[in-house]
Amino acid sequence: MSKLLRMYKAFIIIIFSFYVINIFAKSENQNEYRTDSESFAIPGHGELIINVPKIWNYRYKTTNDDKPPIITFYNLDKNKGEIYQLNLSILWEDGFQRNISSPEYIRSLVEQTGKEALVHSDQTKLKLEKISGRYGVGYFFNLSDSNASSGEYQFLTQGALGVGRLLLIFSLFSNDNDSILQEALMKIIMSAKHQNRKDV
After folding, report:
1. How far, in Å, CA of 33 to CA of 98, rounded?
2. Which of 93, 97, 100, 125 has its CA 20 to 30 A from that of 14?
């Protein structure tokens, strides 16, 4: 397991326990990123609507015991192995911590996580980048691990974005420092919309 992946797991444990499988990655053609709007019900908290690339597969895991729902996006190679993985975790304020969608909390959370991951990366300084979505702001960072072994992830893009009353935590793992994957990631999270319906 690569150091970056271990840091991701440590980060997620702060919020909840989640297991991630090591996979290979490769780049994709930019023309393949046409999207469809998908709706994900969040028990007791309405639904999250996001635009998902048509060629991407996803798994949606949710429970009714106040654990964060997790959307795992991936695609398969010719051997049916996953070639990258994007994990999107959905948190809400009253179930975890107050003001989790505030810019101050998001920056602090991403910065703390980034500093922990920085120790095991090729970089010596953490560079946080700000993103502004339609319904909130967020921050993210990019790190790499050139010592990753075969079958382990070398590149990590990780951050969080406020979407209405929700906090989306995202982690993209790949073995190709390809801007196309990052562009797809940003399109997904920037399209996110929270509908706080009472009937869901």
Report:
1. 36
2. 125
> Which strands form 35-41's sheet, in the order they lie side by side?
35-41, 47-53, 193-195
Q: What is the CATH number of the domain that holds 62?
A: 2.60.120.1690
Query: Which pLDDT value is given to residue 32?
Result: 56
Q: Determine the Cα–Cα distance for residues 38 and 33; give it in Å rounded to an integer.
A: 15
pTM: 0.80
- Among candidate residues 143, 177, 142, the one with its CA nearest the CA of residue 27: 177
Dist CA 144 CA 195 (whole Å) = 35
One-letter amino acid at 54 equals: K
Query: Span 175-200, mean pLDDT?
Result: 82
Q: Quick one: tokens of 145? A: 């691990």
The sign of the CA dihedral 152, 157, 163, 168 is positive
For residue 77, name the pLDDT band (cuts at 50, 70, 90).
confident
Range of the domain at 181: 3-195
